[in-house]
């Protein structure tokens, strides 16, 4: 049954979002300059970050519920069983930073990460009452590998295309989009879980009162709640909950797959095309790392770091700084 209150809240959210955008366009110092969204990279990365937020936290939040209620694990053991997810994420998160520095591009990792994460979440949707610990660990590791590829690339992508004055707000927009997606994902997935579980339980032999109570518990179902049920009702509830959570994981996989399509559409931009040249604006010193030469533009002086020789281009005099002799 559709809730009028929820529809009214959604409509109010849409109206205020539009009003916020209008006000930001008029403001002399906006909280978020809407002009940044004209850049394909910024707009695409923010959309991708939203999808990752919905899929990642929206789906991952219910993994402990599955492990505890469907597979019968304790809270401590369910936390330990999540380690493959964290391990995979840490592994590719670290490796991505190193590889991005070497090849100078972020897009391959973003595309690969969203693709692998979507596969991982699809594998989650295949889990059921008979899933083994080894299977769940393997699925979590795959999902973690994908998320680890994506997470470090998004911030780098926007920082590479915006002006220095917009670095802060552009970086924050990525984090905000992910946080917004996470909040919406958890809420929507919770509502879907409750509705799906109620429909599954209603089709069982449980009494209407028990069905209502269990459906209202939703994601708060725990082994303690199941322990209070009649023995013949426990398998029914576990099966119903497994199918309900599987739908959430499948939804998360579809949302991350949308993120995969967004990642494919991102511009292929090289990171730091002038990376071999570093400029210290305070000291007005430029370092060419290939030639290993520093130039002080104010003094018109070059310093060859290998020979420790200073060349004054105006007088064409060389000075060995170690013995302070001028030939």
For the structure shown, list the relevant keywords.
disordered C terminus; transmembrane helix; alpha+beta; transmembrane transporter activity; 3 domains; MFS_trans_sf; 327 residues; membrane; MFS_dom
What does this structure look like?
It is a single chain. The protein is an alpha+beta fold. Strands 1-2-3-4-5-6 form a 6-stranded antiparallel β-sheet, with no helix packed on it. It has 3 domains: 1-31; 39-265, MFS general substrate transporter like domains (Growth Hormone, Chain: A), CATH 1.20.1250.20; 277-320, no CATH class. The chain contains 11 helices and 6 strands. Helix content is 64%, strand content 7%.
Label the overall shape: flat
CATH fold-level topology of the largest domain = Growth Hormone, Chain: A
Beta-strand proportion: 5-15%
Quick one: how many beta strands? 6
- CATH architecture group name of the largest domain: Up-down Bundle
CATH class of the largest domain: Mainly Alpha
Low-pLDDT ranges: 273-301, 321-327
Name the CATH superfamily classification of the largest domain: MFS general substrate transporter like domains
The first-to-last residue Cα distance is: 93 Å
Output the strand order for the largest sheet: 1-2-3-4-5-6
Q: Percent helix among the residues?
A: 55-70%
Rg, nearest Å: 28 Å
Largest sheet features? 6 strands, antiparallel
Structural class: alpha+beta
Mean pLDDT: 79
Q: How many structural units, i.e. domains?
A: 3
Please count the helical segments: 11
N-to-C series of helices and strands: HHHHHHHHHHHEEEEEE
